Amino acid sequence: MNDAPELLSVRNLTVDFATAEGLITAVDNVSFDLREGEILALVGESGCGKSATALALLRLIANPPGRIASGSVAFRGQDLLRASEDEIRDIRGNRIAMIFQEPMTSLNPVLTVGRQIGEPLMLHEGLREEALLEKCVKLLESVSIPEPRRRMGGYPHQFSGGMRQRVMIAMGMGCAPDIIIADEPTTALDVTIQAQLLELLRQQVETHRTALMLITHNLGIVARYADRVNVMYAGRIVESAGADDLYERPRHPYTIGLLRSVPRLDQPTAAKLVPIPGQPPDALRMPQGCAFHPRCPFAVARCRAEAPALREVGAGHAIACWVDVDG
Amino acid sequence: MGRFIGVRLLHALVILALVTVLVFIIAQLMPGDGVLAAMAGSIDMSDASAVERVRKQYGLDQPILVQFGDWLARFVTGDWGTSIGGGEKVYDMFMRRLSPTLELFLGATIWSIGIGIPAGIIGALKRNSAVDVALTTGTMIGVSIPAFWEAIMLIYLLAVIFPILPPSGYVPFFEDPWLNIKSMLLPTFVLGTHSAGLLARYVRSSLLEVLGQDYIRTARAKGFSERAVIVLHALKPAMIPVVTVIGLAWAHMLGGAFFVEVIFAIPGLGRMSVDAIFQKDFPVMQATLIAVTLNVLLVNLLVDILYGYLDPRIRVRR
């Protein structure tokens, strides 16, 4: 997997939001790579900057209040942050597709589902009429929507939550993108439907060598589907590792805490769940040094003074921590 | 959709029926005998048999329900009685004055949509810019300016200082189309000013709300240009509340039409209805009341149909 060609290379991405109380750094110096056919998970609590990271890749951060302060996003060698409006529009929905987290509100309520699925195809592939219709029907079929031809004329409110999310996925897959960014694609859905949809995305990855960036707070999904995991905390990546490696040997205190706080099937049921003490930091009053130190049981003097950078601690395993806790 | 329109139509008919009953009852509530009062000069009121003859002639000896039936039948067939003031047939009077007022309403609506919607869209897209502030100020003035003052100022400016337009008067369109349009420019503008301002404000806030929705972000993520996002995804949902405002503005125009018709000497319904009220010209008032009701009902029906077209969620909600 590691020698697959690199598709996306994010370096030092920083995103600010101007709020009434002051400037918030939602994404702080984030760097990562994405390869063909790879499923990369971006994990963290809500508010840790994972969605902002995803939106920033396609320059979809609402400005104002948001702003991409610095960094670069190279997609097949082209810097998306410096591309022209036309160039980035040509990539959005075409080479890089996004699937959003709220299937209830992310579809336009006054337009038919068929039209909304057809739009990227019309825009990027110039499909019209019969060809467009056939392609849309095929897409709906591929996400297992019954009677696709009839459902094309339906409106989002006539679909269930799970079906709407399938529609979103069909919409994202239409132009056979190189990268699909799925922002909490299954959060609002039943567990059985979650599994179906993730399976669908995995099929897409396997058959088309699509890269999938899966943004989630659900560690169960990560364990099951991801190849690599980036754990985010307070706007930074604090640990980056292969998924199996991460579950077996988490090395950042936050990741260790996170894994101890959720039930796991590969551990004896007697193992106690331990919550991480304290609260995530207030973005307006970030602690000095490592953002995690007030909650960290291993914190030393240096953690309070200086923020650690991401450093390699094993093959393809990096943490941002002064203390290498071998969990 | 057909069922939806059918239900709305039924509602409208029920309301219309209630209003006709009400209009009839109001006439009955007038103290004394309306027809007899009108005949007071021509017959000897102390002659009981003469009074009885007149009452019989006008059907006033019939039970009230029969009277109502007769009245309704006459009304529906176009016999709306005779104006007490001028002795003219109310139906003829009404129809003669209908077209100037309709033209006034239509022109005012064109002005208000033509100014209000673009102003609102520009305001929303250039939010908080100098353009937006200027537009907001303009709409504020438009909403709050008194129609009679605006009319006088415009006449002074465009008919007196720069004599481009006629100061007042009305020429039917089919007599002289060019003069008709020239003479209607000012009155329609004055009548449409208020709703143009109102509309601009509604369009701006409605479009801003829609632009903040998740599905707009979805449309941007598809690769649409900002213009395409607005035209294809934002305008239709943003128009839903705006349609109501246009309908309301139209329904409320008769009040403004009175001022405009008086100032610009347009022989329309607004003036006629106010005159009728002052002269207690009952047949004319009855006709006006029913016309106003019919106008409001028709506009509401049209708004409902447009609503159903714009918002598919409404079509299923009964």
Overview of this protein structure:
The complex is a heterodimer of chains A (327) and B (318). Chain A is built from eleven helices and twelve strands. Chain A has helices at residues 50-57, 85-91, 113-125, 129-142, 148-151, 161-173, 191-208, 219-225, 243-248, 253-260, 301-305; strands at residues 6-19, 22-35, 39-43, 66-75, 78-79, 96-99, 179-183, 211-216, 228-233, 236-242, 311-314, 317-319. In chain A, strands 6-7-8-3-9-10-12-11 form an eight-stranded mixed β-sheet, sandwiched between helices. In chain A, strands 2-1-4-5 form a four-stranded antiparallel β-sheet. Chain A starts with 5 loop residues before the first strand and ends in an 8-residue tail after the last strand. The mean pLDDT of chain A is 87. With 318 residues, chain B is mostly helical. Chain B has helices spanning 2-29, 34-39, 48-57, 64-76, 90-125, 130-144, 147-161, 177-211, 214-221, 226-251, 253-263, 269-278, 282-310, 312-316. In chain B, helix 7 runs parallel beside helix 11 and helix 8 (177-211) crosses helix 10. Chains A and B meet through helix 2 and helix 3 of A and helix 9, helix 10 and helix 14 of B.
Main attributes of the structure:
heterodimer; A: 327 residues; alpha/beta; Rossmann fold; four-stranded antiparallel beta sheet; 12 strands; globular; B: 318 residues; mainly alpha; MetI-like fold; 2 domains; flat
Task: Indicate the mean pLDDT of chain B.
Answer: 88
Order of helices and strands of chain B: HHHHHHHHHHHHHH
Give the N-terminus to C-terminus distance of chain B in angstroms: 11 Å
| Quaternary structure type | heterodimer
The fold-level CATH name of the largest domain in chain B is MetI-like fold
Tally of helical segments of chain B: 14
Main pleated-sheet profile of chain A: 8 strands, mixed
Task: Tell me the domain tally of chain A.
Answer: 1
The domain count of chain B comes to 2
CATH class of the largest domain in chain B: Mainly Alpha
CATH architecture tag of chain A: 3-Layer(aba) Sandwich
Secondary-structure class of chain A: alpha/beta
Largest sheet of chain B: none
